[in-house]
Amino acid sequence: MEALLENPKDWKKWTALGDLYDKNSLNSQASTCFKMASKIMGPVSTYIDDWSFIGPFIIGKIEWDGDPLEAFGGIRNVSKYRYRKGEQFYSELVKDNIIEWKTFKQNTAENGIQISPTVQWNELINSLGSVGITEWQGWMLGDIYVTEKDQNILIQCLGLHTVYVDDIAVASDVYHREKFWFGVHLTRGIHTLYAHLRTKVTATKKCIFQIDSIPVRVLSPQFLPDLVNGHLFSQYISIPVSNYHHSKWIKVTKITSAQVEISIENTFSIAPGQTAHIPIKVNTKEDIAKKDCDQFDFLVKIITSEGVYSIPLQFRCRKLGQSFLFTYLDHDGSVQQAAAVEPILQCEAELCPVLLTLHGTTVPPQNQADSYKRMEKKEYVFGVDKAWLLAPTRYSFQRNKCILQKLLFIGSNLAIF
Predict the structure, then answer these.
(1) Which end of the chain is more exposed for a tag (fewer CB within 10 A), N or C?
(2) Which of 169, 164, 143 is closest to 51 using CA atoms?
(3) CA triplet 360, 237, 344: central angle to 5 degrees?
(4) For 235-258, what is the mean pLDDT?
(5) What pairing do the DSSP bridges indicate for beta strands 226-228 and 216-218?
(6) Cα dihedral value 408, 409, 414, 417, nearest 10
């Protein structure tokens, strides 16, 4: 109370006081405190500015569940005493083998947090002759402040596999894609986020929070097929739809477009927290654009149980002689992509042979197809002589009979194209 008299705009203390009143069933006093906090910072803190960290502990190369703190009751028990002086643990990575809780400050939501333990990494590497010793584990945690009742809080954590808000597991994004969120139901008060770290040398993470009354988000597709001389050499596209509600399922019942005839064969139910890739069939056999087009723009409407959502899309226009992308329905029902280039010279037989080329990690299928080229008259010519070039995406590289049959099927369609 004295701290609030000195600084009445301290929304953290207003929230803490409201949380204390709530736990003692003093609802009127609690509401007053939360209203003050809400006026200052809004319904939820957008990021954690004070992180508590304990670590680093050693970890095996492929180990994840060997947490040294479990011997002391786990992180939830250990963290209760993080502000108590003299709280110590032991680690082989630091001098004198003793570690204590440390605090790391985060200044803005955009920059995230960087956890860099004080360890003589060079000495450890030299003594063991391996950089494997630079891998470590630990925990960081911080408080989320919610000032209004029954909020659907959207959480996005980057560089982390899974975090916990109180006891709720929250799926995170270890690949830093900055497009996926996870909805969690939180009431007003202070909630703790726990993040189990596993990294090398320095951990760079980012967690942000927001409130969104719209539970459905339509995301941009990862890939779309190309038009080849105005013709669509594909029957399917895939649009990801996310359900960010914490408990409600949603249904995708219909998908339409005024520019292209499209449809879905079945309705799709999307669970809370799930992002589903909806396969959409393109029902057209005619050219949908001019042969000399640059791109073809169209608008797709997704009709769901929560309303109608729109997303603008575009097909890229390509010409014969250039590599082009097309999509196909894989054996598991998902829409996948491949790149192809027509034969440089006319095939000798009625059916053209197909050269199958498989790319490596991080190489897009079009880059793999475009790697087959030669210089003629100071210009690149793409493809191979007297054969179609086929470069499917690496997600199809499972070693089983179904995939081989699918690739043969795609190749046979190219052969008669």
Answers:
(1) N
(2) 143
(3) 55
(4) 94
(5) unpaired
(6) 150
In single-letter form, the type of residue at position 131 comes to V
| pLDDT on residue 401 | 45
Query: Which amino acid makes up residue 146?
Result: V
Q: What is the pTM of this model?
A: 0.85
Three-state SS annotation for the chain = CHHHHHCCCCHHHHHHHHHHHHHCCCHHHHHHHHHHHHHHHCCECCCCCEEEEEEEEECCCCCCCCCHHHHHCCHHHHHHHCCCCCCEEECCCCHHHEEECEEEECCCCCCCEEECCCCCHHHHHHHHCCHHHHEEEEEEEEEEEECCCCEEEEEEEECCCEEEECCEEEECECCCCCCCCEEEEECCEEEEEEEEEEEECCEEEEEEEEECCCCEEECCCCCCCEEECCEECCCEEEEEEEECCCCCCEEEEEEEECCCCEECCCCEEECCCCEEEEEEEECCCCCCCCCCCCEEEEEEEEEECCEEEEEEEEEEEECCCCCEEEEEECCCCCEEEEEEECCCCCCCCCCCCEEECCCCCCCCHHHHHHCCEEEECCEEEECECCEEEEEECHHHCCCCHHHHHHHHHHHHHHHCC
Q: Is the pLDDT of residue 187 over 90?
A: yes
Joined together, the tokens standing for residue 33 give 């405190």
Residue 255: closest CA among 232, 220, 280: 280
Query: In the beta sheet, which residues pair with residue 211?
Result: 153
**What does the block give as tokens for 377?**
């008259």
